[in-house]
Amino acid sequence: MKNSTVEDKTALNVEGLVKKYGKEKALKGVSFKIEGGDFLGLLGPNGAGKTTTIKILTGLTKLTEGGVYYYGRDFSSHPGEAKRVIGMVPQQSNLDRDLTAFQNLYLHTILHGIPKPLRKEKIDEALEFAGLREYRDRQVKTFSGGMRRRLVIVRALLHEPRILFLDEPTVGLDPQIRRTLWEFILKVNQVKGTAILLTTHYIEEAEKLCGRVLIINRGRIIAEGPPDDLKKDIGGYVLEIFLEDRIEEEFFSSREDALERLKEYDHSCKVREVTLEDVFLKLTGRRINV
Length: 290
Ligand SMILES: Nc1ncnc2c1ncn2[C@@H]1O[C@H](COP(=O)(O)OP(=O)(O)OP(=O)(O)O)[C@@H](O)[C@H]1O
Ligand SMILES: [Mg+2]
Known about the structure:
Helices cover 35% and strands 27% of the residues. The longest helix has 18 residues, at 175-192. The chain starts with 11 loop residues before the first strand and ends in a 6-residue tail after the last helix. A hairpin with a 2-residue loop joins strand 9 (212-217) and strand 10. The strands form three sheets. A six-stranded mixed β-sheet has the order 6-7-8-3-9-10, with helices on both faces. It has a four-stranded antiparallel β-sheet with strand order 2-1-4-5, with helices on one face. A three-stranded antiparallel β-sheet has the order 12-11-13, covered by helices on one side. By secondary structure, it is of the alpha/beta class. Adenosine-5'-triphosphate binds at residues 21, 26, 44, 46-52, 91, 201.
């Protein structure tokens, strides 16, 4: 018989999270699981509750109701143990701009109790992994946006967490740097095997990176699954009809059916493959990015 070890358990189990700020509920019962090595995306518009979820899962804010379990252990009663297995990259970068890359990482090794004889080696490895070896002794204020993001990510990995939380990791970056960062984040998941929970309101980011996506709206998970499955559920193809004051959408399971229908309209029309934005629109009547 197999021993029941920590390894056998779900990495993270989130049950019925509710978060109230005053009378307002920012989260209204959010539940999901992360298994080892998963790449999960939390996709939703501004104010949906993405950061609130991550803050609860990393102990930065308290939940009002519900439960969070890392490898079967209750986070609220074993916070220290859980913090050893999680890493966090916040929405707002919290690097010290006046310190060098090395010094920023060194502070983290102290905070996480990494033994002194191991610190330098781990930091050098991290800088190498991030492609920042030659920038080791430069002040962070001289770094580009993309370099800073890579530095914050490897900092969060220094204590070798099993689950990494990334809150809007590519917001504000130009499209080309965003793509480079996507490759870097995928490398963390694939090479290190770290499970990732990433929040984003970029449709393409969720589609390209995540094996599974949770779509969140106004504090509730409204859809969950691999991006392709979520798209197939609404049809796969969309016919956009450009009316004077709005765009109407009709969904079809094949391009041929959509093109057939297009012939019935006098308006300007377009057939294209659906995206997760269409999934969101179908479920909520609104767009993720307005
Ligand atoms: N400290 C706070 N006090 C009061 N209300 C808050 C606080 N933090 C968040 N909220 C509210 O909770 C809701 C969810 O906010 P949250 O920051 O989790 O959204 P988000 O999905 O991360 O949005 P964004 O895409 O803009 O980062 C919003 O309505 C927000 O105004
Ligand atoms: Mg946020």
